[in-house]
Amino acid sequence: MLIGYARTSTAEQDAGLAAQERDLTAAGAERVFSEQVSGMGARPELAAALDFVREGDALVVTKPDRLARSTAELLTIEAELTKRGVGLVVLSMGGERLDTRNPTSKLMLTILAGVATWEREIMLERQREGIAKAKAEGKYRGRKPSIDAYEVRRVALLIGPAAAARQFGIARSSVYLALKPAR
């Protein structure tokens, strides 16, 4: 039995989720587990899909980044599936369909997952360099404050930091940061 898993990071990506579900169904997935959650948070539908698959089944995903956060996690999931007698099928891995029930596909998955991780690290390195350059030129100031520090400071001085944090719905540490320039 082919079991599909689809994921997008945000609710705004409805079209992307629908496209994944369509591709998984077209590939023969009899059941598709879908969710719209960040890769960094809990993924209950992934856990359900991994729990649902049985020996002889295959878990199908459109791309490896829909399944795992990193090369290590991808290879861990694949190893666990293999140990249970379950295959992993990736529909679009550089234009190729990979099925880890085949040793060559397993090798290709490992290599291409490593390349994807390397590519991400290079992109993050360039991003850090760009931010450092922008900071040096005075063009990067970080995220805009979500609340007026003057107002937080004024209220905190009247009713105390803990009460101000509750009133504004922010962390106490944010109140203390607002108070810091006043000291």
Architecture overview:
The chain has 183 residues and is an alpha/beta fold. The protein has seven helices and five strands. The protein has helices at residues 14-26, 44-52, 71-83, 103-136, 149-159, 161-168, 172-179, and strands at 2-8, 31-36, 58-61, 87-93, 96-99. It has a five-stranded mixed beta sheet, with helices on both faces. α5 crosses α6 (161-168), α5 (149-159) crosses α7 (172-179) and α6 packs across α7 (172-179). The N and C termini lie far apart (66 Å). The model has no long low-confidence stretch (mean pLDDT 87).
Q: State the major sheet.
A: 5 strands, mixed
Strand content: 15-25%
Task: Indicate the mean pLDDT.
Answer: 87
Rg (CA only): 23 Å
In the CATH scheme, the class of the largest domain would be: Alpha Beta
C-alpha end-to-end distance: 66 Å
According to CATH, what is the topology of the largest domain? Rossmann fold
* Number of alpha- plus pi-helical segments: 7
Anisotropy-based shape: elongated
CATH homology superfamily of the largest domain: Resolvase, N-terminal catalytic domain
Helix/strand class: alpha/beta
Low-confidence stretches: none
Number of strands: 5
Overall number of domains: 2
CATH architectural group of the largest domain: 3-Layer(aba) Sandwich
**Share in helix:** 40-55%
| Arrangement of strands in the largest sheet | 2-1-3-4-5
Order of helices and strands: EHEHEHEEHHHH
